[in-house]
Specification:
The protein is of the alpha+beta class. The protein contains 11 helices and 16 strands. The strands form 4 sheets. Strands 11, 12, 13, 14, 15 and 16 form a 6-stranded antiparallel β-sheet that branches. Strands 3-2-1-6 form a 4-stranded mixed β-sheet, sandwiched between helices. Strands 7-10-8-9 form a 4-stranded antiparallel β-sheet.
């Protein structure tokens, strides 16, 4: 059987560049080299692209995935021996990778790719659009407000008043289009709110402010699917650091948090979390994978927080670990993502483009 050529695109112009390096290393090492020729494609923080040689064995160090021989003809990197890659896996987190941009490029290049398409990537990345879609599907959410930088500069007092009138402290200030807790602040009063907004505006022009769920459990469910949607039992992220919330440092520093899988909550609630995760997946027109994140309050209420369309993907990240709990191994998850990508690509190819 002829091996398929797989491109792994990683790095990227994002605050989550370093996380992408870890993800790429893990995925490349797990791919069956007997079935696939694997080629790493690196994007620098400056936006330059380079393709490496075929990888035939395990990578020991993530720095082995870096290149200095950059190519300005980006489209040529998606070819090997004169033919386009059979499949590309963009393991990019954050803007310019998880927001529909690279997905659109791959659509134009007519190459099958793993993960969510342009629409689901963009809507899953933008927290405002995502929340509006969740509302259309009657998914319960905590109160929130949003605004653009222009509004803040024109009338800061009005923005602060809206928060004070409609939300309860603590509130969380977030850039609308960034993941991994980058630029997020927990604010306990008006002074911290102003400081948090100024910090978030360093990362995005649109800001979301959400009412906090004090003491709530952070519950997560993994989803795989396209035409058919599959979900896992929920897990819980437990912050064991001294920080007030699950920030970037806590998330990516060993010993600062732990994953309890399955979640130590009433198992009778598992179906509800799984149903809501599948609904959220459908709400953004998901395809491939998402991790759906929830708050479970002391009062027993469940609120959806967000979905992540390219979640952390090392073998020890929450998404693969949730599937491992369902007896689906890390290589099996990757293989399923390949299958779903080809299924979606073939469906798209069968659509009429003209009469």
């Amino acid at each position: 059987m002829t091996k398929q050529n797989i491109g792994i695109v990683y790095g990227g112009k994002s605050a989550e560049h370093s996380i992408s390096l870890l993800t790429a290393k893990s995925i490349i090492n797990a791919i069956d080299k007997e079935k696939y020729n694997v080629f790493p494609i690196f994007i620098s923080l400056e936006g330059n692209w380079a393709k490496g040689e075929q990888i035939k064995s395990e990578i020991k160090d993530q720095n082995e995935l870096r290149f200095t021989n950059f190519n300005s003809d980006i489209s040529s990197l998606l070819f090997e021996d004169g033919r386009k890659f059979d499949l590309v896996f963009p393991v990019l987190h954050g803007p310019n990778g998880e927001d529909g941009t690279i997905q659109g490029f791959l659509e134009i290049m007519d190459i099958a790719y793993v993960g969510n398409n342009v629409l689901s990537s963009a809507s899953g990345m933008d927290k405002v659009v995502m929340k509006q879609l969740f509302a259309a599907y009657d998914l319960p959410q905590l109160p929130y407000t949003h605004f653009i930088e222009y509004t803040w500069k024109k009338n800061k007092e009005a923005v602060v008043k809206e928060v004070n009138d409609n939300l309860k402290y603590p509130v969380f200030v977030k850039p609308a289009n960034l993941g991994s807790s980058v630029g997020i602040s927990r604010c306990n009063d008006e002074a911290e709110l102003v400081k948090g907004i100024e910090e978030a505006l360093k990362f995005d022009k649109r800001i979301v402010i959400e009412q906090g769920a004090v003491g709530a459990k952070e519950i997560e469910v993994a989803v795989l699917g396209y035409n058919e949607v599959k979900t896992t039992d929920p897990g819980e992220i437990v912050n064991i650091s001294t920080t007030e919330f699950y920030d970037y440092e806590t998330k990516y520093t060993d010993g600062q948090s732990r994953m309890d899988i399955p979640a130590p909550i009433d198992p009778n609630l598992y179906p509800e979390f799984r149903k809501m995760a599948a609904t959220a997946f459908r709400a953004i027109s998901g395809s491939g994978l998402v991790r759906a994140d929830f708050f479970y309050t002391k009062e027993g209420e469940i609120f959806i927080n967000e979905v992540n369309t390219m979640p952390g993907f090392t073998p020890f990240s929450m998404f693969p670990s949730l599937w491992a709990n369902m007896n689906v191994s890390y290589p099996e998850v990757i293989e399923e993502l390949f299958r779903l990508a080809i299924e979606r690509y073939e469906d798209r190819k069968n659509l009429l483009t003209e009469e």
